[in-house]
Design goal:
Number of strands: 7
CATH superfamily: Vaccinia Virus protein VP39
Oligomer: single chain
Strand content: 25-35%
CATH topology: Rossmann fold
CATH class: Alpha Beta
CATH architecture: 3-Layer(aba) Sandwich
Strand order of the largest sheet: 3-2-1-4-5-7-6
Radius of gyration: 15 Å
Number of helices: 6
Length: 186
């Protein structure tokens, strides 16, 4: 029996998510833990235009190589693949407050150091900048990681508030995910 798994765009539509974060032309955007496909990276690159820039950050060198390869294949020149440890202080080699919009998509459930992740994202996001967080709903779903590794949106709000983010609003990015938008307050 064949299993019909949804495509990435069917799970979470990247343009709609980026619009929740109020993405604009000319912004500097970062996708923390971008993944091999760069699902949000290349959508953000189109939306920020040639005056903007998107950082595709991941700890896996194979992911960075895949992003670099796709950039060349698609002739995209406003993306910077960047190796970085998003859970360690100064693990991402950028200046403090570098990003207008930061994305943490389906990485909280993977994180072994959620406080470290929240603090590094805070450091890299400018005061007044936006943070979009999406992760798996904390209940059993047909696809996704084990429920024990998932984080509730309420727990994410508490975590991020402790690291200088003010909650803006919630949204539903897909059937198996929750979404939250924050502003870096301090």
């Amino acid at each position: 029996m064949a299993v019909n798994l949804p495509s990435a765009d069917q799970l979470i539509e990247p343009i709609a998510v980026l619009n929740e974060g109020k993405i604009e032309q000319g912004q500097i955007v970062a996708d923390f833990g971008c993944g091999t496909v760069g699902h949000f990276v290349f959508a953000a690159a189109r939306l920020v235009g040639q005056d903007g820039k998107v950082y595709a950050i991941d700890i896996q060198k194979s992911v960075i190589a895949a992003i670099d390869s796709r950039m060349k294949q698609d002739a995209v020149n406003n993306v910077t693949p960047l190796w970085g440890d998003i859970e360690r202080p100064k693990g991402v080699r950028v200046i403090d407050g570098a990003f207008d919009l930061s994305l943490v998509i389906n990485n909280l459930f993977l994180s072994s150091n959620r406080d470290g992740l929240a603090e590094e994202v805070r450091r890299c996001t400018k005061v007044g900048g936006k943070l979009v967080v999406i992760d798996w709903v904390p209940t059993t779903t047909p696809i996704g990681p084990p429920v024990a590794s998932r984080m509730s949106p309420e727990a994410a709000k508490t975590l991020l508030a402790a690291h200088g983010f003010a909650f803006d609003h919630a949204f539903t990015p897909g059937d198996v995910s929750w979404g939250l938008v924050f502003t870096r307050a301090s």
